[in-house]
Amino acid sequence: MSDIQDHFSRESWMLHLFSSQSARSGSVIRRKIRDIDRFAGRAWFLAEMRRRGFPVVENAGQFVIFCNREPIRRIA
Length: 76
Known about the structure:
The chain is an alpha+beta fold.
């Protein structure tokens, strides 16, 4: 398998991430943390999420990204 990272800059990877219908509609997406570390770098990715105002939570090796600026409430 070829190294996908050679074909994507972090900016193009981010563009690809947010081109999904869920992201465009302001819904929720999730990605494996190891993929974020590999393709974008965790610090850069989280800085970009802060810039966009998108909350991110971590669970079971994944980042869950809320592609909107609405508050998050834990119910149970």
